[in-house]
Amino acid sequence: MNNKITIYHNPKCSKSRKALEIIKSKNIEPIIILYLLNKLSKAEINNLLSKLGLSIRDILRTGEDEYKKNNLKNENLSDDELIEFLIKFPKLLQRPIVVKNSKAVIGRPPENILNLL
Questions:
Q1: Geometric angle at alpha carbon 42, from 84 and 63, rounded to 5°
Q2: Residue 20 belongs to what domain range?
Q3: What does the pLDDT read at residue 1?
Q4: Which residues are catalytic?
Q5: Rounded to whole angstroms, how far apart are CA atoms 62 and 91?
Q6: Nearest to 28 by CA among 8, 10, 1, 4
Q7: β-sheet with 5-8: strand ranges across
Q8: What digits encode the pLDDT tens for the residues 72-107?
């Protein structure tokens, strides 16, 4: 089985930087996905949701202006509609997300990732 670690990383986020630091402290060189520069596809988001075992609402940052301006708390929005908003506004993604094989965790707090390493 592939034991490669992937981190969906935002270098401006202190939690994301800390998670990356934890990974590197274990002598692991992860694949770093800069999701703000290279937007995620619908398939990638669905794959992450599957590995996280979470719903799209669980991985949205509810404090962001884009969340509030687009009324994403509206329960009538479908999962597909929310995924489209996440593709359009990638900073809505909870971060960091660390993936290993078929499992993923959100690194909030960053120490959450230790379960994967």
A1: 45
A2: 5-115
A3: 53
A4: 13
A5: 11
A6: 4
A7: 31-33, 5-8, 97-100, 103-106
A8: 999 999 999 999 999 999 999 999 999 999 999 999
Looking at residue 91, which CATH number applies to its domain? 3.40.30.10
Residues contacting 99, CB < 8 A, separation 6+: 5, 6, 7, 8, 48, 51, 116
Query: What distance in Å separates the CA atoms of residue 32 and residue 9, rounded to the nearest whole number?
Result: 6
Closest residue by Cα to residue 96 from 8, 6, 4: 8
Query: Domain total for the chain?
Result: 1
The alpha-carbon radius of gyration of the chain (Å, integer) is: 14
Model confidence at 21: pLDDT above 60: yes
Helix or strand run (H / E) with residue 97: strand 97-100
